[in-house]
Amino acid sequence: MERYQVSERAKLPTRFGNFFIQSFRELKPEKDCECPVEHLVVFTGDFCDTPVVRVHSECLTGDVFGSQKCDCGGELALAMQKIAQEQENGKSGMLIYLRQEGRGIGLFNKVNAYALQDTGYDTVEANEALGFKSDNRDYSIVGDIFKYYKIKKIRLLTNNPRKIEAMGKYVEVIRDSILVPSNSYNEKYLATKKAKLGHLL
């Protein structure tokens, strides 16, 4: 069974700049998923030796609705700005947008985790109280994406050491930090990411 399918390449003009977009349809066995999972790759075009890359897991509440409970929406916007700057400087960049909401637990469970956080649980305790790991994400499709574009070395925009380790299975990784301002709603969330998940904040 093939592991994935790739869409055609299309132009994507955005408020950050003009990019290309492709979708990767991840074909998982039926026992793991009832339907294919479709991810997005936004990129500048041909790749230099070491493109700047953001591997961003979907966060509907932060990315679309501007939730202040996390730093996801701010990181997404900053990553797009940085990729656009690379393009302006004659370099290349890529955003891999993975459809694994709530660190891999899905939107329904993420909202339930939010409800637990409203009663005092932190982000790790809430996921675990629902029977999940603190981070349930799978990055195997990213390895296929890097291979498809013939990318062997990246500058990874992340504060997450687990993500650095995961990407290191597929490419050589140089880390670039991606820091956005905190607010009164996400201070505890960020402190938990630093204390319990080891984020470099």
From TrEMBL:
Keywords in alphabetical order: GTP-binding, Hydrolase, Metal-binding, Nucleotide-binding, Riboflavin biosynthesis, Zinc
Cross-referenced Gene3D superfamilies: GTP cyclohydrolase II
Cofactor binding, note field: Binds 1 zinc ion per subunit.
Pathway, per record: Cofactor biosynthesis; riboflavin biosynthesis; 5-amino-6-(D-ribitylamino)uracil from GTP: step 1/4
Cofactor: Zn(2+)
Enzyme nomenclature, EC number: 3.5.4.25
A GO cellular component annotation in the UniProt record: cytosol
Binding site for Zn(2+): 59, 70, 72
Superkingdom in the source lineage: Bacteria
Catalysed reaction, written as an equation: GTP + 4 H2O = 2,5-diamino-6-hydroxy-4-(5-phosphoribosylamino)-pyrimidine + formate + 2 phosphate + 3 H(+)
Residues annotated as binding GTP: 54-58, 101-103, 123, 158, 163
GTP cyclohydrolase II domain ranges (all copies): 9-170
GO MF annotation: an example: GTP binding
GO biological process, one term: riboflavin biosynthetic process
Active site (record annotation): 135 (proton acceptor), 137 (nucleophile)
Entry annotated with the keyword Nucleotide-binding: yes
Function (record text): Catalyzes the conversion of GTP to 2,5-diamino-6-ribosylamino-4(3H)-pyrimidinone 5'-phosphate (DARP), formate and pyrophosphate.
Annotated family: Belongs to the GTP cyclohydrolase II family.
Protein name, UniProt field: GTP cyclohydrolase-2
Gene of this entry: ribA
